[in-house]
Amino acid sequence: MDAPALKAARIALRAHIDRHPWIECLSATLLLSLLTLLVHGASLQGSWRWDDGAHLSYAAQYTPWQYFLEPHVAQGHSSANVAPWNLLFYDINLSLFGMAAAGHYAHLLLLVGLGAALFYAVLREWVEPLPALIGAVALLLGKPTAHIAAGLMHGHYATGFVFAMLSILGWNRYLKGGRGYWLGLSTLAYLLATTCKEVYVPLVVLLPFLPVGTRQQRVRALIPFVLIALLYIGWRYLLLGRLVGGYSQGVFDASEALRQLLRVPKLLLGSKPPGNILAVVFLGLLCLAAVKRRLHAPVFFVSLGIVLLPLIPLTAFPGIHSPDRYLFVPWVAFSACLAVVWPRETRPVFALVGGAALVAALAGVHAQEKQALRPNLAYWDTLYRFALSLDKERQAIFVVPEFGGTDDGYKRSVLIRARNTADLFAPKPQPGDLHVVDEKGRGLEQVPLATLQLFEFRGGDMVPMPPERVAEKLPSLARGQPAQSVR
After folding, report:
1. Tens-of-pLDDT digits for all 487 residues of the chain?
2. DSSP character for 367?
3. Angle at Cα 343 formed by Cα 341 and Cα 348, nearest 5°?
4. Helix and strand totals (H; E) in the chain
5. Are strands 395-399 and 453-458 parallel, antiparallel or unpaired?
6. Rounded to whole angstroms, how far apart are CA atoms 8 and 302?
7. Among 224, 199, 135, 207, residue whose Cα is nearest residue 169
8. Secondary structure of residue 181 in the 3-state scheme
9. Whole-angstrom distance between the N-terminal and C-terminal Cα of the chain?
10. Which candidate in 25, 188, 189, 387 could, as Cys together with 166 as Cys, close a disulfide (CB 3.0–4.6 Å)?
11. C-alpha separations of 334 from 60, 204, 281 in Å
């Protein structure tokens, strides 16, 4: 086909899509849903991980009314954050699926896929289909997204992102001449996003800088958002007893904070060839867009502030040392910027080839993170599955902290609480308590040594501990009690 004919075909196709926008929307949604399953579908075979035991127990113990509005209940969940949707995510899933983890993960992946589709719709408000699709694909292939999709304890991040995208979409549609219900949808979505995680509260700062409508229209439309933000401040003070602050551990050090923040790009992209290629391409596109004045400076710098400022307190504790959920918002900003700076004048064939190469680099970065994360996921899956299925009269668990140090009873707590919650949903729960012993001997006093066999994670499975292994790991027991009595 010659160039004029090809151009005519593209114009005809674009005209058809403009007349039937649902075709593009449906196609993009199906593609992103398929990619979500391909990239993150392994989570459907996962078990409980990390903080799940604590969250399951708390959600089963309290009602949404309590953890949304009662200070002592909210602080019992977290004295550092206001994120009741974290518990509501488990509450909803327990009502629907009980302790079937696959159902919980299906809900999580539904949110991840829906968030990507809405992200595409938001990007389409300003850019063409291909760059919008590249941005949405980048979102799904990001390292922080891999962490979120791998853990149910991150469900409120995924939920909040869906609400945030609905809020931006409604805001734009209203200011483009839409009816009032678009503004209503936007404000309601923003209100719900603030109940998911604090990282979505600064959306109120970004909205008035988005290039849509007139300044006067944006100021008037912003009023309900400001009221919600003020309401959030009062609600946060009610629940936590302070207006600002988060984790109380750690000491802030400006030089250390700067060092951690400067490492964020390396954490997100890595230092191997796919990440290096991605970094060089992105910087090149960013410079090209700046030269051609295609960057909207107010949005760019406001977004940069929204991304970086919430990270500063985290540098004191727990520290920014991995591309996990704490870097999700920076990755969202990166994905959006990638779509915005994508060249507009490129020939379709070059655009498709360049886009494919970029996605390949993103896939390489994603694969590296999945490989790094796999042992940790396998460990927690094995630990929780054993804890929920063992014979409480004959078997007990011995746990040690990962990467050295101590967990201060963390694993004991989450495993015991997970089993207690599972017993609530079991037709005939086994009587008695789950016994978990840690490296400091906590929990040992409750273990009937003559009847229980200790198990530990070794070689990818839970294996019984022989007497000499018990003596090695619990020397205090060996001194006070013959190791042979632990079977």
Report:
1. 455 554 555 555 565 556 667 788 899 999 999 999 999 999 999 999 999 999 999 999 999 999 999 999 999 998 888 999 999 999 999 999 999 999 999 999 999 999 999 999 999 999 999 999 999 999 999 999 999 999 999 999 999 999 999 999 999 999 998 899 999 999 999 999 999 999 999 999 999 999 999 999 999 999 999 999 999 999 999 998 877 666 656 677 888 989 999 999 999 998 888 888 899 989 998 998 888 888 888 899 999 999 998 898 888 888 899 999 999 999 999 999 999 999 877 677 777 888 888 899 999 999 999 999 999 999 999 999 999 999 998 999 999 887 555 566 899 999 999 999 999 999 999 998 899 998 888 887 777 666 789 999 998 999 999 988 888 888 766 544 443 333 3
2. H
3. 140
4. 22, 4
5. parallel
6. 40
7. 207
8. helix
9. 78
10. 189
11. 37, 19, 13
Residue 23 tokens, joined: 């075709």
Query: What's the whole-model pTM score?
Result: 0.91
- State the Cα–Cα distance between residues 88 and 470, nearest whole angstrom: 40
**Angle subtended at Cα 455 by Cα 450 and Cα 457, rounded to the nearest 5 degrees:** 165
Q: Identity (one letter) of the amino acid at 259?
A: R
Residue 284 burial (C-beta neighbours within 10 Å; 0-12, 13-18, 19+): exposed
Phi and psi at residue 251, to the nearest 5° = -125, 130
C-alpha angle with apex 417: 72 to 112, nearest 5 degrees? 85
